[in-house]
Each structure stands twice: as structure tokens, then as C-alpha cells.
């Protein structure tokens, strides 16, 4: 009988925090920017420069800790992790080993196989390293220190996950919590959320863990799921052949769907950690902790319950809208302005999601304002434009955030409410289509649809279909 294997997975998730400035200096954390322009003596590791801790970093770390049920370590400090690499300008990274800011939390996840609690071993604060850019043409490597000193929290899970589905559910839950807190935008493609996967396999029923490998270079949920499946199969294959798994760091190549060894972790590097002598320990008082606790936002579960009470929109809509902080903000603000939650929800669930999918964009990429969506709904309600034209305007608004009323006015798209003009147009359509008129009188209801269509065409889409119907029936 073939052996059955179980996968054991733990994650190290790095999240870039949404502070305006770096963790130990006043340089900008903005993404992009010409290489080495967001730098100063501190974040480029110049001798004699001194770090000063950014208070907002500590507050974000505590916020994430509280939201994930962690114990907040009231007296925590920073350590130096020594290693020599070109993108690490001081030749050490400031991190937290001995006294991290948060410990022993958990996150509830839901997958097809049910609900499960994934333990969080710890959350610590640290600085990001710079970035090496490899120039194939010149065969050289260049270094950009813009990212050096950008604040990170590292969230280390317990090895509680058993499948790619559980890993993705865990990451999505974490991302949502952090986005709701406003602590990070968690854009995987920009590297503001990065996950390293520690994975081992063992025979079902075994109590000891197998030898684990760590996989890096994972910048999308799909890549993470593929890497997990690929590494699981690779390790099982080795065990089936009677070979052993080597403890090492591997790099996943998503194009080739293959991972290759980067460096052995057999003798895990000795980073010679020691407390950073330039930074004082952080003491978190009762008052400070309480202030942060009071500022915690309404998270998804509470939001879903409130939406049910307040907005009377379908459960499915609630689930999709609250599943994304940008969509929830858009919905609430637009509904507050126009007082039409159901219509706002319809525009989000219909046209907004359709265009996001078509353009391959994420909700955080939405450019149009809640005010303009509310104005579009109000313009339709006042019968100044009809539904079809509203959709055309929405496409332009989606791309350029135009004011829908001004745009309809400027492009001459407003509904023609001139009854005399409408009546004479319909009379001509009726006169030109005797067959359809006869069909209608013979009980063929569909014929009226054709006549409405012809009228709308003649009016260049700028008539109110309800008014067209009323006048048509009267004439017929």
C-alpha cells in the first residue's frame, strides 16, 4: 500500500508598513522614485549616523498584534542581525530576536474543509534592506537603497497549515486585517507583503516533523499555491526514492514552475545577534496600549453584521464588498452621500467588478470618487440620463474620474424630455413600420420592443425608455 503524506507549513510574512517615513530616519517610504533618492546617512549606513525610532511603526505593530489576539510585550528591544551583503549598508539589519513586540496570537481561517485556528508565534519590527538590480547587459549588479530602512513587521506563524488552501486563506485574512487597520496596502506585486514558505512532509500519523525547506521569491497568491504544490511533490519524490530532504533555502521560479536551491541552511547562519546599542528599549505603558486599542477600526466581521442591519443589501453583496477595504470605503461613502445603498451596491457588484476584471486591476486601483458615483446615481434618479448612457459615462468615470453631470452636459448626453419632439419621432417610427404595428395589434407583445428600439436609435439613446413606452402605447 502506498504511503500517505501530510504537508506541514509555516509562514514568515513580511509587511511594509504605511508610514510616510522610514523606521529610523526621516526619508520617504514612497514606492518608486529614482534609485538612491530616498536616502540619507542613516539608511545608507554611514559611520557616526544614529537611528531614531519612528513611533508610528510601534503603533502599527501593536495594532496588528491586538487584531490577531497576541500578547503585547510591554518591554521590548531591538537587536542587530549581522550579515554581509551589498544591499545591507550597515552590514547588519536592525530587528528583534530576544524580545519581539508581539507573541502568541492566532488567526481564524475558513476553507472548504471548515474553520481552523492558525497560531502566530510572534510579530517583530525590523528594517527592510535595499534592492539589488542585476544588469544582464553590462553583467553587473547595482544597488538601490531607497527601500533600505523601510519599516517592516514580520509575522511568524506556527507550523499549523496543511495545504495551499489553508495558506491562501491565512494570507487573505492577514491582508484584510492589516488593510482594515490602514497599516499597509499589502500589495504583493509591489513587495509590500511578501511571504516565505517553510514546508516539510511527513507520513500521515507521524509525530515528528520532516526536514523543512524555505521558499522565497513569492509575489502572488497563485505563485505561493503553485510553489507549495511543487515543493510538496519534490520532497515526496525524494522520500519515495529513499533519499533525504536537505534543509535549505530555495527560490521559486514561477515561469518554469520549479524551485532551485539558493543556499544550504544545514548550519543555519550565525547572525551573532546582540542588542542594538544605539536604540533604547521600548516601554509600552497601560495608557499608550489603551489609546491604540480604542483606535482599532471596525473589522470585517463587525462590518458584515452592521451592513445587514443598516443597508438591507443581499448577503452575497455584503460578503464581496467587505472582502476589500477599498470597496467597503467606496460603498459606505457613496451610500452616505446619495442615501441609496442598494443602487450603490449594484454599481459596485456590476460595472465596477466587471471593469476591474477586464482591466486586470485590484480594488485598491479604483480611481473614481464615491462622490461621483453618488452623483451618477442621482442623475439617473432624476431621469436626466437613462441606464444605458449611465453605463457609458461610468466607463469614462472609471478611467478618468470625470464629474458625471458635467460630462453628460458637455457631451450632450442628457435625456430629451421634450414630449412634443418625442411624440413626433414616435409617430414617424409607427408610420414607417406598419408590419410591427399590425403584429402588435395581433397580440404580439414583442413588436413593441422593436418600436421602442427604433425610437431610442432615432433619439441617439437620449430618451427615457419609460416615457417612450407610454407614448407608443397611446399612439398604437
TrEMBL record:
HAMAP family: GatB. It holds the Pfam family GatB_Yqey. One of its GO terms (biological process) is translation. GO terms for molecular function: ATP binding; glutaminyl-tRNA synthase (glutamine-hydrolyzing) activity; transferase activity. This is Aspartyl/glutamyl-tRNA(Asn/Gln) amidotransferase subunit B. SMART domains: GatB_Yqey. Allows the formation of correctly charged Asn-tRNA(Asn) or Gln-tRNA(Gln) through the transamidation of misacylated Asp-tRNA(Asn) or Glu-tRNA(Gln) in organisms which lack either or both of asparaginyl-tRNA or glutaminyl-tRNA synthetases. The reaction takes place in the presence of glutamine and ATP through an activated phospho-Asp-tRNA(Asn) or phospho-Glu-tRNA(Gln). Residues 329-476 form the Asn/Gln amidotransferase domain. Belongs to the GatB/GatE family. GatB subfamily. Keywords: ATP-binding, Ligase, Nucleotide-binding, Protein biosynthesis, Transferase. Heterotrimer of A, B and C subunits. Its EC number is 6.3.5.-. InterPro entries: Asn/Gln-tRNA_amidoTrfase_suB/E (IPR017959), Asn/Gln-tRNA_Trfase_suB/E_cat (IPR006075), Asn/Gln_amidotransferase (IPR018027), Asn/Gln_tRNA_amidoTrase-B-like (IPR003789), GatB (IPR004413), GatB_C_1 (IPR042114), GatB_Yqey_C_2 (IPR023168), Gln-tRNA_amidoTrfase_suB_CS (IPR017958). It comes from the Bacteria. It catalyses: L-glutamyl-tRNA(Gln) + L-glutamine + ATP + H2O = L-glutaminyl-tRNA(Gln) + L-glutamate + ADP + phosphate + H(+); L-aspartyl-tRNA(Asn) + L-glutamine + ATP + H2O = L-asparaginyl-tRNA(Asn) + L-glutamate + ADP + phosphate + 2 H(+).
Amino acid at each position: 500500500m502506498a504511503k500517505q503524506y501530510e504537508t506541514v507549513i509555516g509562514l514568515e510574512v513580511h509587511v511594509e508598513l504605511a508610514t510616510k517615513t522610514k523606521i529610523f530616519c526621516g526619508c520617504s517610504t514612497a514606492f518608486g522614485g529614482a534609485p538612491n533618492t530616498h536616502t540619507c546617512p542613516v539608511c545608507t549606513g554611514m559611520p557616526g549616523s544614529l537611528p531614531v525610532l519612528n513611533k508610528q511603526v510601534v503603533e502599527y505593530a501593536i495594532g496588528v498584534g491586538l487584531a490577531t489576539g497576541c500578547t503585547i510585550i510591554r518591554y521590548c528591544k531591538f537587536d542587530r542581525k549581522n550579515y554581509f551583503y551589498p544591499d545591507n549598508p550597515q552590514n547588519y539589519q536592525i530587528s528583534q530576536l530576544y524580545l519581539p513586540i508581539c507573541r502568541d496570537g492566532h488567526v481564524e481561517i475558513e476553507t472548504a474543509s471548515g474553520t481552523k485556528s492558525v497560531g502566530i508565534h510572534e510579530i517583530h519590527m525590523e528594517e527592510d534592506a535595499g534592492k539589488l538590480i542585476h544588469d544582464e547587459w553590462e553583467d553587473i549588479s547595482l544597488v538601490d537603497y531607497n527601500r533600505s530602512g523601510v519599516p517592516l513587521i514580520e509575522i511568524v506563524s506556527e507550523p499549523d497549515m496543511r495545504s495551499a488552501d489553508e495558506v491562501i486563506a491565512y494570507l487573505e485574512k492577514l491582508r484584510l486585517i492589516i488593510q482594515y487597520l490602514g497599516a499597509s496596502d499589502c500589495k504583493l506585486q509591489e513587495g509590500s507583503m511578501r511571504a516565505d514558505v517553510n514546508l516539510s512532509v511527513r507520513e500521515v500519523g507521524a509525530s515528528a516533523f520532516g526536514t523543512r525547506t524555505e521558499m522565497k521569491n513569492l509575489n502572488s497568491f497563485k505563485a505561493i499555491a503553485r510553489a507549495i504544490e511543487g515543493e510538496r511533490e519534490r520532497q515526496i519524490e525524494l522520500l519515495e526514492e529513499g533519499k533525504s530532504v536537505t534543509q535549505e533555502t530555495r527560490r521559486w521560479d514561477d515561469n518554469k514552475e520549479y524551485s532551485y536551491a539558493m543556499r544550504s541552511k544545514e548550519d543555519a547562519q550565525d547572525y551573532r545577534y546582540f542588542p542594538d546599542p544605539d536604540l533604547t528599549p521600548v516601554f509600552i505603558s497601560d495608557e499608550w496600549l489603551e489609546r491604540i486599542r480604542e483606535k482599532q477600526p471596525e473589522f470585517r466581521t463587525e462590518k458584515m453584521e452592521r451592513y445587514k442591519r443598516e443597508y438591507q443589501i443581499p448577503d452575497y453583496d455584503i460578503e464581496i464588498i467587505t472582502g476589500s477595504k477599498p470597496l467597503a470605503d467606496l460603498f459606505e461613502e457613496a451610500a452616505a452621500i446619495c442615501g441609496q445603498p442598494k443602487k450603490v451596491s449594484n454599481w459596485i457588484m456590476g460595472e465596477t467588478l466587471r471593469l476591474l476584471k477586464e482591466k486586470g486591476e485590484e480594488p485598491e486601483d479604483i480611481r473614481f470618487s464615491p462622490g461621483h458615483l453618488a452623483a451618477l446615481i442621482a442623475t439617473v434618479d432624476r431621469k436626466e440620463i437613462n441606464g444605458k448612457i449611465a453605463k457609458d459615462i461610468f466607463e469614462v468615470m472609471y478611467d478618468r474620474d470625470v464629474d458625471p453631470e458635467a460630462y453628460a452636459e458637455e457631451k450632450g448626453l442628457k435625456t430629451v424630455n421634450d414630449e412634443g419632439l418625442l411624440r413626433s419621432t414616435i409617430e414617424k417610427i409607427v408610420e414607417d413600420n406598419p408590419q410591427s404595428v399590425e403584429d402588435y395589434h395581433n397580440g404580439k407583445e414583442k413588436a413593441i420592443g422593436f418600436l421602442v428600439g427604433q425610437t431610442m436609435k432615432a433619439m441617439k439613446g437620449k430618451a427615457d425608455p419609460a416615457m417612450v413606452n407610454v407614448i407608443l402605447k397611446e399612439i398604437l
